[in-house]
Amino acid sequence: MSRTLLMAAALFAAATLSAKELKVLMIGNSFSQSVLSYLPRIVKAEKKHNLLLAQMMIGGCTLNRHIAELKKAEDDPNYKPYGTNYQKRRRVNLPEMIKAEKWDIVTIQQGSHESWNKEKFQPAANELIAYIRKNAPQAEIVVHQTWSYRNSDGRISGPKPGWGFDQKGMYDRLTANYTDLAKEHKLRVIPVGKAVQLFREKTPVKYTPPTAEEKKNLVCPDLPKRAGDVVGNDWWAKDRKTGEMVLKTDSIHLNNDGNYLQGCVWYGFLFGEDPASIQFVPRNIGNKQAALLRTCASEALKTFPQVKK
Question: Which residues contact 283 (CB under 8 A, 6 or more apart)?
Answer without folding.
Answer: none
